[in-house]
Design brief:
The chain contains 5 helices and 14 strands. It folds into 2 domains: 67 residues, no CATH class; 164 residues, 3-Layer(aba) Sandwich (Aminopeptidase), CATH 3.40.630. The protein has 241 residues and is of the alpha+beta class. Strand 13 and strand 14 form a beta hairpin. Helix 2 crosses helix 5. Functions in the N-end rule pathway of protein degradation where it conjugates Leu from its aminoacyl-tRNA to the N-termini of proteins containing an N-terminal aspartate or glutamate. It comes from beta proteobacterium KB13. This is Aspartate/glutamate leucyltransferase. One of its GO terms (cellular component) is cytoplasm.
Length: 241
């Protein structure tokens, strides 16, 4: 992944971070290209950056740029090519959750679900509740772009929240967290299936799923939605494996 030409993004500078521990492949060090200053990245430029492999986390627009490693591969779905398999079709039809779309705001019920998810999913027991609140706000409630919370309810109980960015050509799934006590609902799968249908209703051709890493088992679910596209050699390529 190369640094974009400045002429494409006149008001943006791109810098390379120092090495840090990779969050996906623990034995490796990572680096990222970051678009700066963040406030100078307008919606149209952000859309264009996503299409060439960038990603947003809080107020950082970045993409991996690691020495001797290209494991992080941008992945997206062409929603009109996608076909649900039998398992996905059952998942979509059986859940029938109530879905509410909101602007970014802090609500305690959202935060408590996020905190519970982090503790179980990532074994995060080190931070105080107040520190976690600040992390949650900075990570998921900070955005200069068109960002929404998609909330999924069952019998008035909040089961899942998806944070998404709206783009000119699709939706970018930023982060999803859910109640791990309801694994039988296959909530992660359902959120993607729901967003695919949302893209179709809004006439948006792509659902961006961030990065896929073949060696990371937690990311295997992304290639179960077929066909999928990977950004390789500066172009999107279709895979149906």
């Amino acid at each position: 992944m190369s640094i974009p030409e400045n002429k494409e993004f006149k008001k943006i500078q791109f810098y390379l971070t120092a090495n840090y521990n990779c969050g996906y492949l623990p034995e490796k060090k990572a680096q990222s290209i970051v678009a700066s200053p963040y406030q100078n990245v307008n919606q149209n430029e952000f859309d264009n950056l996503i299409t060439i492999g960038f990603r947003r986390s809080g107020n950082h627009v970045y993409k991996p740029h690691c020495h001797n490693c290209e494991a992080c591969t941008p992945i997206r779905l062409d929603v009109h090519r996608f076909k649900r398999n039998r398992t996905q079709d059952r998942c979509y039809k059986k859940n029938n959750l109530v879905v509410v779309e909101e602007d970014l705001n802090f609500l305690e019920e959202d935060f408590l679900l996020y905190s519970k998810y982090q503790k179980i999913r990532h074994n995060d027991l080190s931070s105080s509740l107040e520190d976690q609140r600040e992390e949650y706000k900075n990570f998921l409630l900070t955005s200069n772009f068109i960002t929404k919370k998609i909330k999924f309810y069952h019998n008035d109980k909040l089961l899942m929240v998806s944070i998404v960015d709206y783009l000119n050509d699709g939706i970018s799934a930023v982060y999803t967290f859910y109640d791990r006590n309801y694994l039988k609902y296959s909530l992660g799968t359902y959120s993607i299936l729901w967003l695919i249908e949302k893209c179709k209703r809004e006439n948006l051709p792509y659902l961006y799923l961030g990065y896929w890493i073949k060696e990371n088992d937690k990311m295997k679910y992304k290639t179960k939605f077929k066909p999928f596209e990977l950004f390789e050699d500066k172009q999107w390529k279709i895979f149906n494996e």
